[in-house]
Amino acid sequence: MNDQRVAILDASYSPFAFIREKTTVESSDDNLGLQPIPKFAEIVTDAAKSAMLSGEYRPGSIAIIDVGVVCSTCAVQVVGRAIHSRIAELDVWR
């Protein structure tokens, strides 16, 4: 990928492999921290594939990573909007 890039991540995960190991929180509250977005990997994959299949973006402008997607600034609006709309539709937010 060249030029400027944007990462869209599920912030409940660390993008750094050495931090990904689970740590225990010494608290009785199990809801501390951010909860993973359900089906996030599937949502990101679908959004990235749809953007690439549109033919508007050259190969290498969108890259799916373990906890999200990295894309060129020209693709971020389309990819970001697709991800946002799919997450907003999830039943867990209602």
Protein topology:
Blueprint: E1 5-9, H1 40-53, E2 62-65, E3 68-72, H2 76-88
- Percent of residues in beta strands? 5-15%
How large is the count of helical segments? Answer: 2
The total of beta strands comes to 3
Quaternary structure classification:
single chain
Order of helices and strands: EHEEH
Structure description:
The protein has helices at about 40-55, 75-90; strands at about 5-10, 60-65, 70. The protein has about 90 residues and is α+β, with helices and mostly antiparallel strands. It has one domain (about 5-94). It has a 3-stranded antiparallel β-sheet with strand order 1-3-2, covered by helices on one side. Helix 1 (about 40-55) packs across helix 2.
Features:
94 residues, alpha+beta, three-stranded antiparallel sheet, 2 helices, 29% helix, globular
Short description:
The chain has 94 residues and is an alpha+beta fold. The protein has helices spanning 40-53, 76-88, and strands spanning 5-9, 62-65, 68-72. The chain is 29% helix and 15% strand.
